[in-house]
Amino acid sequence: MENITSSPTWYVSDTAFDWLYPERIQQLSKLHWTPMEVARKSAKFLASGSGKRILDIGSGVGKFCLIGAHQFPEAIFYGVEQRKELYHFAQAARERTASLNVEFINSNFTQIDFDDFDNFYFYNAFFENIVNEGQIDQDMEYSTSLYNYYTRYMFKALDNKPSGTRVVTFHSLEDEIPPSYQVVDATVDFLLKMWIKR
Ligand SMILES: C[S@@+](CC[C@H](N)C(=O)[O-])C[C@H]1O[C@@H](n2cnc3c(N)ncnc32)[C@H](O)[C@@H]1O
Question: Which domains does the chain have, with CATH numbers?
C-alpha cells in the first residue's frame, strides 16, 4: 500500500532530494538520476501486489530505490551499483532517510541472481558505453562490446523470468528487452515504458 501519511522534506521535490548528497553529486542529478515523478510512477507499477522485491539495475546514488521504498513500505527495493563511491553515497542517504526496506549492493549487475527479484527498474545504465561524452566519470572502461555484453546478459536474464514479471525502462534503446515483454503503458514522449512478460 502507498505511504501517503507522511512526507519528509527530501521526498517533496527533486531539489530537496538532491540535498541528501554533496554538491558534486547534485550536479549529476539532472542527467543521471531518475526524476522524482518518474520514480513515483515507476514504483507504483513495480510494487503492485504484495511484498514485491524490486531491483534497480545500476542504482547510482539510490534515488529510485529511496523514493519507491518510502512510497511503498511493504515492498523491498534493491539497488545494484558498480561504482563504489556512488554505492557509499546511496548507503549514506539510506541512513539519513532512515529507510528500512532498501538494500544497496556494490557489484556489477552480472553478479546478481535475477531469481531473487520479482520486478526490475532500468534507467539506461549501459548507454555510457556507446557515447563519447556525458559519462559520470572517466574511471571505468567503456566500449561497444561491453554494451553488447551487458544488454545480451540482461536480455537473457529477463527472458528466463516467469510470466507476469514487470519491467520499467527509462530512456532505453530497448536492446535488453526480450520480445516476450509487452508494453502496457508509456508516457506521451515514450521515454518511460512499463512492460509485463506474457
Ligand atoms: C543513468 S544512472 C541511473 C541511476 C539510478 N538508477 C537512478 O535512476 O537514479 C545508471 C547507473 O548504472 C550504473 N551501471 C552501469 N553499468 C552497470 C553495471 N554493469 N553494473 C552495475 N551498475 C552499472 C552506473 O554506474 C550508473 O550509476
Answer: 9-197 (3.40.50.150)
Q: Does ligand 1 come within 6 angstroms of the Cβ of 81?
A: yes
Going from the Cα of 181 to the center of ligand 1, the distance in angstroms, rounded, reads 22
- Can you give the pTM of this predicted structure? 0.96
181 Cβ contact partners less than 8 Å away, ≥ 6 residues apart: 158, 165, 167, 195, 196, 197, 198
Q: Which three cell numbers stand for residue 151?
A: 544488454
User: Are the C-beta atoms of 158 and 177 separated by less than 8 Å?
Assistant: yes
Q: What is the pLDDT of residues 91-148, one digit of tens each?
A: 999 999 999 999 999 999 999 999 999 999 999 999 999 988 888 988 888 899 999 9
Distance 86 CA to ligand 1 centre (A): 9
Pocket test for ligand 1, best of 41, 81, 148, 192 (most atoms within 8 A of CB): 81
